[in-house]
Amino acid sequence: MQLLQYKSQAVAKPYFIAAIALFVGQILFGLILGLQYVVGDFLFPAIPFNIARMVHTNLLIVWLLFGFMGAAYYLVPEESETELHSPLLAYLMFWIFLIAGALTIVGYLMVPYASLAQMTGNETLETMGREFLEQPLPTKLGIVVVALAFLYNIGMTILKGRKTALSIILLTGLVGLAVLFLFAFYNPSNLVKDKYFWWWVVHLWVEGVWELIMAAILGFVLLKITGVDREVIEKWLYVIITLALVSGLIGTGHHYYWIGTPGYWQWWGGIFSALEPLPFFAMTVFCFNMVNRRRREHPNKAATLWALGTGVMAFLGAGVWGFLHTLAPINYYTHGTQITAAHGHLAFFGAYVMVVLTIISYAMPMLRGREVNPERAQVLEMWSFWLMTVSMVFITLFLTAAGILQVWLQRIIPSPQSFMAVQDQLHIFYWLRWLAGLVFSVGLAVYLYSFFAKDKPQTAEAGEAQPAAT
Amino acid sequence: MSAFFTKSMARNIFYGGTLFSVLLFLALTFHTTWRLPGRIPTETPAPEVARGKMLWETRNCIGCHTLLGEGAYFAPELGNVYKRRGPDFIKIWIKAQPTKVPGRRQMPQFNFSDQQLDDLVAFLKWTSEINTEKWPPNIEG
User: Fold this and answer.
1) What's the CATH number where B92 sits?
2) Is the minimum CB–CB distance between A435 and chain B shorter than 8 Å?
3) Do B29 and B84 share a domain, yes or no?
4) CB–CB contact A262 B39 (8 Å)
5) Taking CB atoms and an 8 Å cut-off, how many pairs form between chains A and B?
6) Domain presence at residue B141
7) CA-CA distances (angstroms) from residue B5 to A353, A435, B37?
8) What confidence score (pLDDT) does residue B106 get?
9) Predicted structure pTM score
């Protein structure tokens, strides 16, 4: 039995492996950061907080991009019913992206940031030192090259083959991702303008075009595991992405309350971003609806669990925790506190981490030459799902508690206390958050182990059977 | 979703809704840009402010601090630090880092020249004079 419908889908495999490896790095630095919150001088001056945070967030972005690219390389040939335009280009870009990413991280850790800026020509075009866009100029240019080559490869494949709504939605999201990244090169000395357009990368990615990519990936996996009619799934996808862009575009305004932009943004941003939970709620309903209407029992139970989990956690993290502080009168007090950190963690995990783990869970067994993973591997993978998801919920709850106390002590009571005086009183929540982070790491370790788990000897033949021979 | 709501209807609503939102967002952006000069201290920041912003960026200050509420949440808000502490305190503080108090959060020593410290303070002063709709709620940031 041929497991991959198209041979060139195999290029997705290294992308997924790199994604998981960088995910591990991200979590290690997360643990360092969590500890620095309570043991302030931990690893100082070797790895100051700002450097560790940059590694933590940049690794997240890069591994999610690896995941999105792997997902595209896996699902586009199948959707287009044709081989990938150029597998060679895909492999080449994989190595370029991986090496550029690794060099960037090494640069962050080995060289003082100011020297790194000097060495990489930041003075010719100043783009560094803005949150999430800290990459040196050569890395940013590398990202553009990789993105262009990737879009060319995916675009040509779609062009020569069957054009499904699903692949068009994915392509629209990916083109949007690449185009909006160009605003990373615009950094005026006027701070307000800088911030205004910085959000065109950051917000319009995660609360805009990434939702298209996410919907397409989720739609593809649900299509495969439930066997529900394509027409139904694609109709849902259009509804979801309409809600995403109609709420999310003007919803950018919830970042324009207090940065020097006109006060009317409190209305535009508040009203539209209050609608931003809707696309995520639609995703939740979509996931459960499709699974309930399934026409087959897909043997990959772990992938089904990830898909349902994505639907629920994205709504909780991005939808509910976003709504909590999106209205201007509330945001006035919560802006830039641990409330934001709480939302950031659950939203990124629930939406984008989980959707990438969903497609990996579905595709990886076939990329490794088996229809599904052995029973025991699936059970372990589902354990890792619960460990990581529940611990992330607790991380979010502890950060939310810290945030509420921080807002109260620093911004509401009659004699407000200074930032550091308040931080000292939040230690219990930071310690609990760190413990939850440790549990998350255990979940991640179980996840990694699940890739190598085999069934117990008595049922070994089911797990070990060579697909090529069947 | 019943049969009379077809996929092509959903697709058309997507294209229409997105186009409308993009145009509305661009119009608001245009208006915001037009209104901006009245909300910031100087329309074109002075050279020392621009240099200060570059120092702010190349030392990755945003990796610990927030500036107008955006950044990391590890160290104090600096959008209003000029008003909270004043120029001299800011310079002395930066020069005195790290405090090396055991267990305390530490800020690196950046070895700024006097000129660079002046530039950084100019940038923080410019930032503190932006009309932020009265945010933060109080001087503590």
Assistant:
1) 1.10.760.10
2) no
3) no
4) yes
5) 223
6) no
7) 32, 49, 48
8) 97
9) 0.96
Would B133 be classed as within a structural domain? no
Same domain, B20 and B47: no
Contact A22, A56 (CB under 8 A): no
Q: Identify the residue whose tokens are 């939740």.
A: A284
B positions 4-43 inside 8 Å of A (CB): 5-7, 10-11, 13-14, 17-18, 20-22, 24-25, 28-29, 31-33, 35-36, 39-40, 43
Residue B122 lies in a domain: yes
Q: Is residue B68 part of a domain?
A: yes
Of the candidates A40, A21, A82, A33, the one whose C-alpha atom is nearest the C-alpha of residue A57 is A33
**One-letter amino acid for residue A316 of the chain:** L
Q: What is the pLDDT of residues A274-305, one digit of tens each?
A: 999 999 999 999 999 999 999 999 999 999 99
Q: Is B113 on the interface with A (CB under 8 A)?
A: no
Place of tokens 């357009």: A197
Residue B79 is part of which domain span? 42-128
> Could you tell me if B14 and B53 lie in one domain?
no
Who's near B89: CB < 8 A, 6+ residues apart? none
* Residue B59 and residue B104 in one domain: yes
List all residues of chain A from 244 to 283 with a beta carbon under 8 Å from chain B. 245-246, 249-250, 252-253, 255-263, 265-266, 268
In whole angstroms, give the CA distance from residue A59 to residue A23: 7
Contacts of A117 in chain B (CB under 8 A): 57-58
pLDDT by residue (tens digit) across A382-437? 999 999 999 999 999 999 999 999 999 999 999 999 999 999 999 999 999 999 99
Same domain, B124 and B92: yes
Residues B31 and B65 reside in one and the same domain: no
Domains in chain B, number:
2
Q: Does A414 touch chain B (CB under 8 A)?
A: no
